[in-house]
Amino acid sequence: MEIVYRTGSAHELAVDALITFSHSWKAGDPLNGGAAAIDAELDGELATLLADNGFTGKGASTFITPTFGKTAARRVIVVGLGDADAITEDGLRLAYGTAVTTARDAGAKSVAASLPNSKFNTIVQVAEAADLATYRFEKYVGAAGTPSTKAIESITITGDATQAEADAAITEGRSVASAVALARDLVNEPGSVINPVTFAELAQQIADEQGFEYEELTPVEMEAAGMGAIQAVGKGSAIPPRLIRLTYRPGHDAGDSRSIGLVGKCITFDTGGYSIKPYEGMLTMKNDMSGGAAVLATMTALKATGCRHTVHGVIAAAENMISGEAFRPGDILTAANGVTIEVLSTDAEGRLVLADALVYTAKQGVEEMIDLATLTGAAVVALGDGSTALFSNNDALADRILAASEQAGEFTWRMPLTPSLEQQIKGDVGDIKNTGGRGGGAITAALFLQHFSEGLPWAHLDIAGSAFSTKANGYNPKGGVGVMVRTLLNYLAAEA
Ligand code: BES
Ligand code: MN
Ligand code: ZN
After folding, report:
1. Residues 150 and 243 placed together within one structural domain of the fold
2. Is 420:396 a contact under the CB 8 Å cutoff?
């Protein structure tokens, strides 16, 4: 799909579908926004049709009609933007994402879009939304991956921005969306394709393309570094674990930049190990690498979004399987910082791989760490599908992440690191246990990770409920969501 910008009016373009907009509207009032001009071309019939349809200009509501030669476009889609003074970045994305899929589903190949203004950021969000909303994973559909018949070939965005500025905005929006698409693809790929070794190969290829520093630890190096936890989790699989690091360093003019560690849980398949999962629970466990996918995907867009910080992307990749080599309940592991861990459940493996990965990341000299993990079913029980649970030992860090997630439209809710629950993970024969019982399961998992935060400002994002979706929602498809990529990019793009 091509997205181009043209100065002038979208209403003159001979396309299959024109997307125009209306702010909040009441039947009987004159139409507003781009819809007003189309209404004039249609002799007031558009307003009548919208009124019949109950259209009120509510955010992301759409109305589509053919125009039988009365407008340059063959069809007109009116998208609601709500109150003009209350429009948000995510409101824009939801509206234009919905409008673009409406055009696609009507069979349009060429589309023109008129926007409420010509601001750089508005163009970024519309381009981003168009790509996010039209994403599909169809590599394995049909014999040779026959693509869907309905696909938009070109979108022309119009307005009065300068061509150079608009082109830059489109490039930025599309870079962000393509990072999200990479994360979605990686999550959607089965565990037979994405394993710790193939994930590492891809990470290395990306590091080479982007000019990032790259390091990969195999079990031999893990052993030397005292990483007993990630090693144990990886032992049951025929494919060995990998600890992966990609480091982005900004150009010379970095000013007041920080050094930030992003750490992703990347269990390429989670059977539960000997504490094996039942059928239902194992069904979607190819998505247990979503944290790692988010970290890798975020790294690919750092240049395009002009990140001024040094970013270490660390991915703890292992496959949690069963074999004669696998670790067992009762085993006692020693993590890279010397903390000993009693394994109560081999299914609480995410916190184990993260333990070593957090200590390793702290050793890179970062000033703060953010980990992302499909860590607990308890986070899904607490917040429901689609929400991310945030835990942090630092209020300023937590507030910055919440602001970034709100801007991204990725719902995130801060949960407590309840000190009294520490006793639930206190070890009997080792320092700590890897499970803390039923009560506060997402919290005790976070408390476990805190033992490996090495005194740094640290935040933990439990994405068990938000990484994978059983139904499409807004501009997010069914399956891998690519969650937190845009939150992280917003976070990293923000001033220090
Ligand atoms: N990968 C799972 C958590 C998960 C559950 C992710 C549902 C996505 C959807 C994790 O490794 C796990 O199995 N957690 C256990 C921990 C328990 C054994 C303490 C859980 O949540 O049941
Ligand atoms: Mn598990
Ligand atoms: Zn897991």
Report:
1. no
2. no
Average pLDDT of the chain is 97
Determine which one of 351, 400, 433, 486 is catalytic: 351
Gap from CA of 215 to ligand 2 centroid (Å): 26
Q: Is 420 inside a domain boundary?
A: yes
Per-residue pLDDT at 144: 60
The alpha carbon of 186 is separated from its chain's Cα centroid by a whole number of angstroms, namely 11
For residues 230 and 322, give the distance between their C-alpha atoms in angstroms, rounded to a whole number.
15
Query: Can 486 be counted among the known catalytic residues?
Result: no
Cα–Cα nearest to 258, from 311, 299, 315, 211: 311
Number of compact structural domains in the chain: 2
CATH classification at residue 106: 3.40.220.10
Whether 119 is catalytic is no
Q: How many helices (H) and strands (E) does the chain have?
A: 15, 19
Determine which helix (DSSP H) or strand (DSSP E) holds 99, and give its type and residue range. Answer: helix 89-105
Domain that holds residue 111: 2-158
Residues with CB under 6 A from ligand 1: 270, 288, 345, 347-350, 374-378, 380, 435, 441, 464
pLDDT of residue 142: 82
CATH number, domain with residue 366: 3.40.630.10
The pTM of this model reads 0.98
- Nearest atom, ligand 1, residue 435 CA: 19
Say whether both 373 and 432 belong to one domain. Answer: yes
Please give the span between the terminal C-alpha atoms of the chain, in angstroms, as a whole number: 35
172 within some domain: no
Q: Are residues 92 and 190 in the same domain?
A: no
- Which pLDDT band, with edges at 50, 70 and 90, does 166 fall under? very high
Residue 162: both structure tokens together = 């300068």
If asked whether residues 121 and 257 sit together in one domain, one would say no
SS3 438: coil
At 362, list the tokens: 């702290």
Q: Output the six-digit token pair for 14.
A: 């001979």
pLDDT digits (tens, 9 = 90+) for 72-112: 999 999 999 999 999 999 999 999 999 999 999 999 999 99
Q: Tell whether 103 and 247 lie within a shared domain.
A: no
